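Severity: low
Component: inverse-folding endpoint
Summary: output formatting inconsistent between runs
Steps to reproduce: submit the following structure tokens with default settings.
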């Protein structure tokens, strides 16, 4: 069991609980989010095959010069939605990876929804 006395330990404990339930398939891959202080990353993962189908990050955008804000996160969500549409993916399972559904994670999800992905 993770040490829950630190922020990282708490996030790891929450992440393990989410991963017990959320699994990606070929038809509905898992949209996994990772955020740091400098960037936000997102991947479409097929857990059955263990393959990353598409990925996007704030580094792909020219706007990212000094951290991440909600507009950048939203555009990363729209970018992954475009890549998913190109790969023929319509529906996904959202994996917030232990982060609160708030701020940049929420903006990314809203951008993906606006891009046409169904959660």
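Observed output (run 2 of 3):
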């Amino acid at each position: 069991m993770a040490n829950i006395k630190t922020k990282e330990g708490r996030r790891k404990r929450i992440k393990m609980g989410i991963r017990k339930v959320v699994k990606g398939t070929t038809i509905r891959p898992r949209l996994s989010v990772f955020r740091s202080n400098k960037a936000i990353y997102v991947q479409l993962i097929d857990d059955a095959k263990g393959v990353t189908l598409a990925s996007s990050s704030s580094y792909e955008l020219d706007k990212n010069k000094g951290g991440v804000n909600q507009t950048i996160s939203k555009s990363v969500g729209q970018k992954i939605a475009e890549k998913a549409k190109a790969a023929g993916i319509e529906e996904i399972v959202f994996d917030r990876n232990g982060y609160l559904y708030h701020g940049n994670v929420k903006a990314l999800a809203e951008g993906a929804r606006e891009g046409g992905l169904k959660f």
